[in-house]
Amino acid sequence: MILIGYHPKGSYKLYNHVIQKVHISRDMIVDEAEKWKWEEEPVYSEESQETYIYPDSSDESVNNDDADESDNEEVNNNDVDEHEEVEAT
Questions:
Q1: pLDDT value of residue 78
Q2: What is the DSSP letter of 24?
Q3: When comparing pLDDT for 58 and 9, which is higher?
Q4: Which residues form the Retroviral polymerase SH3-like domain (predicted)?
């Protein structure tokens, strides 16, 4: 754990980097001889990593014809009342 500050009631605020939570404790032993291992690569769980792909404007211009067709389909679907039944063609 890493000492990050002091609590107003006289306790210590400690950060547990393994579970990524802050703990408040009155009892603490400081090992001043221990050093942070800066050379080690951080370990990340797969759950916390997300990938987002944003298309460039050049990608949109290539598929412009396809976008027009899908826009027309959406407009036609929106013209139908929600409660109305539509037969499949």
A1: 47
A2: E
A3: 9
A4: 1-41
